Amino acid sequence: QVQLVESGGGSVQAGASLRLSCKGSGRTFTSDTMAWFRQRPGEEREFVGKTTWKSGSFYNVDVIGSLGDRFTVARGGNRNVLNLGMNDLKPEDSAIYYCASRPKGDNMNDRVLDYEYWGPGTQVTVSS
Question: Rounded CA gap, 53 and 72, in Å?
Fold first, then answer.
């Protein structure tokens, strides 16, 4: 059974940092595209960032432009872990953050429907 489990969410003050982690199990994720999405109350789920397998142990990293100066995405573990570093958090970053994965993939995979596997999400709340 394929599972993605997010961790590291919580409640913080504006300006703080958080590091979310997603661990996959039940299959080999080495060549998967793994991504972070978030969903704010009343809004659709939106793409945050992803890693796409390039070759060997190298991955292309892509973070949506509006967040690129504060958020980082990186692969870890035995390639089955995806981390999201968030700095200088703002109240508008409050959302449920989801991890997603799909076999192979490419740099175009920024849509919810591009992904096959999803975690249950972790809540991030940023207060002003």
Answer: 16
Task: Report the alpha-carbon distance of residue 109 to residue 100 in Å, rounded.
Answer: 11
Q: Which of the 8 DSSP states describes residue 112?
A: G
d(CA 65, CA 47): 11
Can you name the residues that pair with 25 across neighbouring β-strands? 3
Structure tokens at 105: 């993939």
pLDDT digits (tens, 9 = 90+) for 51-99: 999 888 889 999 999 999 999 999 987 899 999 999 999 999 999 999 9
d(CA 81, CA 21): 7
- CA–CA dist 79, 92 (Å, integer): 30
